[in-house]
Automatic annotation (TrEMBL):
PROSITE patterns: AA_TRNA_LIGASE_I, S4
Record Pfam families: S4, tRNA-synt_1b
Keywords: Aminoacyl-tRNA synthetase, ATP-binding, Cytoplasm, Ligase, Nucleotide-binding, Protein biosynthesis, RNA-binding
Protein name as annotated: Tyrosine--tRNA ligase
Organism: Oryzisolibacter propanilivorax
Motif segment ('HIGH' region): 57-66
InterPro entries: aa-tRNA-synth_I_CS, aa-tRNA-synth_Ic, Rossmann-like_a/b/a_fold, S4_RNA-bd, S4_RNA-bd_sf, Tyr-tRNA-ligase, Tyr-tRNA-ligase_bac-type, Tyr-tRNA-ligase_bac_2
Reaction(s) catalysed by this chain's protein: tRNA(Tyr) + L-tyrosine + ATP = L-tyrosyl-tRNA(Tyr) + AMP + diphosphate + H(+)
Keyword check for Amino-acid biosynthesis: no
Amino acid sequence: MNQATVTTFPLTDDVRQALEVTLRGVDELLPQDDWTKKLARSAATGQPLRIKLGLDPTAPDIHLGHTVVLNKMRQLQDLGHQVIFLIGDFTTLIGDPSGRNSTRPPLTPEQIKANAETYYTQAAKVLDPARTEIRYNSEWCDPLGTRGMIELAAKYTVARMMERNDFHQRFTQGNSISLHEFLYPLLQGYDSVALKADLELGGTDQKFNLLMGRHLQQEWGQEPQCVLTMPLLVGLDGVDKMSKSKHNYIGITEDANSMFAKVLSISDTLMWDWYTLLSFKSLAEIAALKREVEGGRNPKDAKVLLAKEITTRFHSAAAADAAEADFHNRSRGGIPDEIPEVQLSGAPLGIGALLKQANLAPSTSEANRLIDGGGVRVDGSVVSDRGLKLDAGSYVLQVGKRKFARVQLD
């Protein structure tokens, strides 16, 4: 960073407060001194800082894990800075190798376009659309061409690239690494050059790529960006990071009842990490609530507050209230007011086949496993016999606490 341009600005109380907001829940802020100086310069000159978050549209839906960095973007946006929501429509053609032990299969342009169309609409549930710059990295990556790509590749060495953990592990384990995968961190770094970013955000698994942006900006004679990494949100299972492939996620477009119930399903311990990373409550408010729980208040009360906050954010306060009422009704064994209605034929029909055809179980064998576990009810009564056959009639089928269907069997 050009020290002459940043050391003359005072560290006011507002700057210190902005730094505190920046640091909330973060894993690393690199280099913190440089970011403090950028904040001081911005406060003194009134020039907003440019804050970048890139997401590759590898799937059409955003889950709560993605919103950890979106929440941080919103906090910095509320401080008056310019946030840039970058859709990696070009880099998705390569596939981000971060954290992978094998080559990630690239998507087709058609798949990328379809996914990208939904991304910003969902992100706008967290960010302020009026103060968000939306960009696509095909804007500057497509024009690079072969010559530009070669010149970009010359800015980094293979030895440095192999220092990256996932590349090093795959190489030592004898797993393949395709040459095009080396282009991914280079292109992500080049995004920062094109956008003249002051700060780039990402998960902890993105650190190498984010630092590449600093390196390339220096190569292009720019003031290097700072790097902020956020922890990866642990999913519903309490073990792995939230991921669609792990089936431990909450999509931000899920219905309010499912969203509310899934938040309540997390452990009392994990709840506090979710509060830090997902709640908009102040750290002081969260600390006070935690003291109340440690003093004897039921932790479920705190979890309900978190579930209502998250559900309200992505739906409405009324929907959150209704979801809470629905959850309590189900916990007492009640049936929700609105459940899917299914018309089936073939009576008498075995319970396993019935659950599969009613879309309450993916297969008959899975239906049998659910029955063995006591998780299946017909008209409120637990089913224990895999061989049960139902005659023609109307039935309310329930699997677990949240899956229902009203079946008319002929």
